[in-house]
Amino acid sequence: MTDLLGLAAIVPASAGACCTVGAWRPGRAVDVVAAVVMVAAMVDGAFGPRVLPGVLWFVVLALLAVVVAAVHRVQSASGASGASGASGSDGRPGSAPAVRGTSAHGRFGRLHAALGLLVMGALGVGMAHDPGMTGMASVGMHGHGGAVAVTWQVVLGGLTTGYLLLTAHMVRDGIRRRTRALPVVETLAMGIAVTVMAAAMI
Question: In degrees rounded to 5, what are phi and psi of residue 100?
């Protein structure tokens, strides 16, 4: 059942990745790379033997999450500088038109993408069938690894819950604002994929 749900999660994740590729524009190449790598990690976990261990995939996805967040920060800083440079000739603050009513996807899109990479990587570790992971789990039952495993599950549960709450907020906001369908479908598809992956671990 776990393997079946793992396979099922690939479908919405692939749909979300296709939406990311379809919405590509200059400055968003890192999002496309991250989406493709995430689907590759899921496929590798579902169809054995693995190319990379689950832990290594988690490290790769975590690094991509950091890159996504860093790129967003740099682009936000550049946008703020551009906006300040576009102020009126009188030099008074606020003379440039302010952008109001930014959508939830505009505010939290990159955060959602970065958090999704972390959650998917962590869920992939939890579903791993690597011999090394099995050995670690058995040792953990008789040593300090048991506490580490419990802590990992608590952290994973918190990340997953936070991700799904953010997903619901972004989808609701997108529907309410009647924004473009592609970002809403992308967010919803990734939320469904995480839900299915989480259900596979129960």
Answer: -115, 160
Say what percent of the chain tops pLDDT 70.
Answer: 77
DSSP secondary structure code for residue 97 in this structure = P
8 Å CB contact between 83 and 102: no
Structure tokens at 44: 């590798």
Average pLDDT over residues 136-142: 45
pLDDT score of 127 more than 60: yes
Identify the DSSP state of 99: P
Distance (Å, whole) CA 141 – CA 153: 14
* Residue 19: both structure tokens together: 């939406």
SS3 content of the chain, % helix, strand, coil (to 5): 80, 0, 20
**What was the pLDDT predicted at 185?**
92
- Tokens in use for 102? 């930014």
Q: Given a cut of 80, is residue 37 above it in pLDDT?
A: yes
The H or E element spanning position 29 is helix 29-46
Copy the structure tokens of residue 189.
Answer: 């598809």
Buried (b) or exposed (e) across 170-199, using 16+ Cβ within 10 A? bbebbeeeebeeebbbbbbbbbbbbbbbbe
